[in-house]
Amino acid sequence: MKENNIFSKVLLDGTLLETTYNPVEQETWLAVYKDGEAELKEKYTANKGIEYTPVPPTNDLLNKSFVRVASAITSYSGGDYGLFQEIYDFISKYMKLPADFLTVSTVYVMLSWLHDSFNTLPYLRVVGTYGTGKSRFLQIMASLCHKSMLAGGSITTAGVFRTTDIVQGTLVFDEADFKASEMWSEIIKILNSGHTKGTPVIRMESNKADGSFKTKAFDVYGPKVLASRERFSDQALESRCLTAQLLPLKHLSVPIHLDKEFETKGEELRNKLLAFRFCNFHKIKADENTLEGLSFPRLKQSALALTSVASIIGKEVLMTVLRFLQEYENDLGINQRNDIKADILECIIELVKIDHISLDENQRPSRGIYMKDISDKFTTKYYDEYTDMPDRSNTDGVISYRNGAVSAKRIGTYIGKLGIRKAHDSRGFYIPLPQELKTIEALANRYGLETSWNENGQTDKISPPPIKDKDTINADDIPF
Question: Global pTM?
């Protein structure tokens, strides 16, 4: 049977295969884990005689260090918590990070080696200007994460798609390498699809021989580590990212250059992480009980893999990760509530309350709220706030309006973006409340707005519940 060169694979019987590469000897082996035992082999023959072999050492992705893999299988002491401490110390030696985010980054490294056990993943990201250490962060994470690919500005979008599809590892890149060109729109496709298993990116490829086109599906699922100057305007994508804001540091207590010890220790940790993968791949489960205290559905969905891995490391680590997630969730809620769509939704809710619309479907009159009424309410409520606001009309964010007023047509556009359906009669477009009230309630919950209809017509904003003090620990108190 034809041989298959693979970076890694999970067979139907649970056997785990991983290519290892020894850069000194310039040779590759296939690490095989089956029935609780691990060994290095030249090849592995599976059912029906299918043979799997490691990627050859002559492969440029390996010998030019574009893809980093383990060189051996190395046991580690102190259990999973002991390995966590080693990774934590390694990152903190070469990078100054906020305490909680340092813990999150360490767990993310370990998650990357188990990522194919989960259906949905978060992305890890740092945001900052020049001189804040974004590139250093990417280099560190690339030295540790599973089958990492450190993509720079010299790579083409076709290269990103193809390599990600072939390797199916951790994509590490700086947004600045792509943002200034048409390549960024292609990268966004990877980010929008790469967090969920089974959602490939579809592209059309031309056949130079006859000029025809064929459809090609690229599997871009996997961990992503990003660096950018600012946050995404797309709230859905933003909620997939676990982010730390980096600030310029005048006095560094970390090495200016990454020395030979950095490469040596990084390889040593990858070898231990390969053993970690073998030991935990079939044990790890998505545990929704680890999400206690989180409210936003999309963030919970993304964070589940991270909290599940944190829970097997230790309770203290999980509580630190949860604290970070709750603070981040609160930031997301504030950003959402500052979104023009949230302000329009609040106006709609107030108009519903003023009209005393009942939640009982049998008592709901067949009436609606017209775009003109929402526009008038919005202008009255937010006139000063939206006057002379910086123009961001090329994004999905807030845009500027002359004299702070918003037309009924513009209101209708944003209502469409919210997913609320409209109807039309002789007076113009309106929201048919009997049909759309449930949608409005769901959106209100998503944006942190009160969903009960009070007789006084007041709208109360709510925030995600914080972790109770007795359940939290200070990351600085963890004995690392």
Answer: 0.72
